Amino acid sequence: MPFDWMKIPYALLTLFIVFNFGMLLNALIQKIGARVGRRYGVPIWQNYADLIKNYGLRSSITHGVMYYLGPVFRLTGGVGLLLFVPTIYGSEMFSNLSFAGDLILALYFVFFGTLGMALGAGESGHPNAAIGITRGLSQVTAAELPFALAVFSVALQYQTFSITDIVAVQQAGFTSWTLFTNPLAVAAAMLSFLGSMMRPPFDVVLAPQEIPIGPPTEYHSSYLALMQTNRAIFPIAKIVLYMSLFFGGAASWPVFFLKVFAIYMVSVLVGVAFPRFRVEQSIRWFLIWAVPLGVLSIVLV
Q: What global pTM score does this model have?
């Protein structure tokens, strides 16, 4: 089957819409966190100003090739996940580059950026960066495991690895959503979601008092701008995957914005209500509560 080159402009349009939506959501979340702490918070446009400033800066620091490719891999994970997951169900314009087995590729993209970032920061030669990578990868692996189990459960339930086919089955009404037909898988995935979004109580690796031992210490200027760009795209891309697998997908942009916002707010509300876990506490929490739910969902299916 020949490739439809007309999909590329529409995929880029999807990327543009999601990037700006992610930037505005990040600013709104910062506002919410500030108001909970009785502060005013940054202006809505501040993230755009910081991004433009960082893209305009250059670095004279010389490291290995992998150091420079780390942020590129990080951004590739977010962009690739978004472009290979259908955004709007039933729309030829916004089906992006999806294909029959896109669910498997989506799982690779979920973890791709994290591994690339780890390799890049590790080549900086800073011992604290290596410590931060070890802690971050340990927590991310524990958080992603229940999500992988939930995805396998859903694939077994619907007998397909096509995200579009999974969304199609859920179009009979909200009671046909995976949320109601396989609640254990959704519960495991949502617990994993809290950790993968790197928000409290699972953000100790990126917490302000922990920054000196994490990769952000080593990256600045345009490299930091690439990471900031990914922070706007990757969370939305992952929520689109969650929305498609567990919450019926979206057949229009208004439904898309509403569902993405609602799912994102789950992690935000948990984040402002609970204190941070240490890394070992986070790993123990996922292994005790989330992983058994994922295993049980597969067994029952």
A: 0.91
Number of other residues whose CB lies within 10 A of the CB of residue 126: 17
In the chain, what percentage of residues exceed pLDDT 70? 94
Residue 262: how many CB atoms within 10 A of its CB? Answer: 12
- Smallest Cα–Cα separation from 114: which of 74, 79, 142, 145? 74
Q: How confident is the model at residue 293 (pLDDT cuts 50, 70, 90)?
A: very high
Please say whether the dihedral angle defined by the alpha carbons of residues 106, 202, 72 and 226, taken in this order, is positive or negative. Answer: positive
**Cis amide linkage into residue 9, ω under 30° from 0:** no
SS3 call for 280: helix
Instruction: Compute and round to an integer the Cα radius of gyration of the chain.
Output: 19
3-state helix, strand, coil in the chain (%, to 5): 75, 0, 25
Q: Residue 86 contacts by C-beta under 8 Å, 6 or more apart in sequence?
A: 94, 95, 96, 98, 102, 163, 164, 167, 244, 249
